Every structure is written in C-alpha cells, then in structure tokens.
Amino acid sequence: MSDVTSAIKTVDALLQAYKSGQRSFVSLSLTAADLSDADLKGVDLSYADLSGANLARVNLRGADLSYARLCDADLTDADLRGSMLIGTDLRESKLDNAMLQSADYDPAETHFPKHFDIKAANMRPDR
C-alpha cells in the first residue's frame, strides 16, 4: 500500500484526493463507507476493502476493482461499465439496476451474489 493511500482514512479524504487528480487508491480500506453518488470514474481501487459500503449511484465507469472486497456493498444504480472486476468479491452485494456492460470478470475468481445473471449484465469474461 502506498503512503498516500494509507493516509486516506475517510470518505472526504478519498474524494478530495480524487478531486486533486489522484486516481490510484490500491489497497484502500473504507469498510461501510458512504460513497453514494460519488464520481470516481477511472479510479484504481484494486485490492481495496469496501465491504458493506454504500456505493449506490456511484460512477465507477472504467474503474479497476480487481481483487477488491465489495461483499455486502450496495451498488444499486451504480455505473460500472467497462470496469475491471477480476477476482472481485461481490458476494451478498446489491446490484439492482447496476450498469455492468463491458465490465471484465474472471469466471473462476470473480464472486457474484447468488442468482446474479452475468449474461443479462452483458459482462465480458477475461478468459
């Protein structure tokens, strides 16, 4: 984890760093954070822990969420088009009306909620 990422402990700090042009937040830990309605287009949140976070209506278009923990997160109406979901843990997450078109996932390593329809979401297998 970079020194910059480890210094970010709050939603406000993350949003301010993003607004200042930072895009890499690898291994960030903000469990149960409220990031609803945030614009984080193109952000790198690989290996981040956002378990239980409120990500409703968040713009994560083109984001790298590889190996991130998003279990039990609310991604209702989130924009994840073109994002990287390789090895991402989305178990128990809420994906109602989430836009996932052209998002990359690994059929062997990405974990989705029970009964999630990958084909209907128009996602792309990485393998």
Textual characterization of the structure:
It holds the Pfam family Pentapeptide. This is Pentapeptide repeat-containing protein. Keywords: Repeat. It comes from Phormidesmis priestleyi Ana. It is built from 3 helices and 3 strands. It is low in regular secondary structure and 127 residues long. The chain has one domain: E3 ubiquitin-protein ligase SopA (Pectate Lyase C-like), CATH 2.160.20. A 3-stranded parallel β-sheet has the order 1-2-3, with no helix packed on it. The longest helix has 9 residues, at 11-19.
Brief sketch in words of this structure:
InterPro entries: 5peptide_repeat. The chain has 127 residues and is low in regular secondary structure. Helix content is 14%, strand content 5%.
Q: What proportion of the residues is helical, as a percent range?
A: 10-25%
**SSE pattern:** HHEEHE
Q: Give the termini separation.
A: 28 Å
Uncertain segments of ≥5 residues (pLDDT<50)?
none
Give the spatial strand order of the biggest sheet: 1-2-3
Question: What descriptive keywords fit this protein?
Answer:
globular; 3-stranded parallel beta sheet; Pentapeptide repeat-containing protein; 3 helices; 5peptide_repeat; little secondary structure; single chain; repeat; 127 residues; Pectate Lyase C-like
Write the layout of secondary structure elements.
Elements: H1 3-7, H2 11-19, E1 84-85, E2 104-105, H3 118-121, E3 124-125
Parallel strand pairs: 1-2, 2-3
Keywords: Repeat
InterPro entries: 5peptide_repeat
Pfam families: Pentapeptide
